[in-house]
Amino acid sequence: MNVGSSAAKSAHRFLRAALTGVLWAGLAGGALAQTPESDSQNRSKAITIVVGAPASVNCAAAANLGRFDDDALAFCNRAIESERLSHQNRIVTRINRGAMYLRRGAAAPTAADKLAAGQAALADFDVIVERLDPNNADAHFNRGGALIMVGKHGQAVEAITYALGLGLKQPQKAYLNRGAARESLGDIAGAFEDYRTALEIDPNW
User: Fold this and answer.
1) Sequence-distant contacts of 26-29: CB under 8 A, at least 24 apart
2) How far, in Å, CA of 89 to CA of 56, rounded?
3) Which DSSP category does 26 fall into?
4) What is the value of pTM for the model shown?
């Protein structure tokens, strides 16, 4: 089916961005898990790590810079394990760490490393949707990305569909992720519709 093949090509071009570049979280005080700015625009802000700042602040700064190295993750771990975070900051910090794990998985050199990173990300997003904020659209959307990474494509479709129902600032990225999951399930027609919808929302993405 030609349309399916064309849709698949669109998916392959965008899937890495769909799994990594959209997984942002804001600094303490408000979740910005789907900033409308591009990756390069975010990096140009030159957010820096501040010596002596709360670990949650440095975790957010590292996430906004696109980092996923051990030191960046250590800030998030310390914040979650040791700091007295507000309810909202706990959610934001979990999103930050989950985003780092997804980026790490996307860049992983082996399938085993990718799976481990995806499982770690999924654990953070599960905490949010199961305990902290069941109606957090960003967490459900990013959870869908983690489910794709660990090969649970049916559950990924469900999670992303739920996120779309809650409302997302950049729904085109959710449609691309869901299209990729549907393609993996053999639902070429459904995948094509999702890819087409994504490109209709943002033809220049």
Assistant:
1) 26/60, 26/64, 26/92, 27/57, 27/60, 27/61, 27/64, 27/92, 28/54, 28/56, 28/57, 28/60, 28/86, 28/89, 28/92, 28/93, 29/88, 29/89, 29/92
2) 8
3) P
4) 0.76
Tens-digit pLDDT profile for residues 49-68? 554 468 899 999 999 899 99
User: Largest alpha-carbon pair distance within the chain?
Assistant: 58
In angstroms, the CA 103 to CA 76 distance is 15
- Helix 188-201 vs helix 171-184: angle between axes, to the nearest 10 degrees? 160
Query: Structure tokens of 196?
Result: 């087409």
For the chain, the distance separating the N- and C-terminal CA atoms, rounded to the nearest angstrom, is: 25
Angle at 56 between CA 160 and CA 38, to 5 degrees: 50
| Residue with token string 């992303």 | 160
Nearest to 48 by CA among 62, 69, 67: 62
Q: Enumerate residues 6+ apart whose C-beta is below 8 A from 134.
A: none
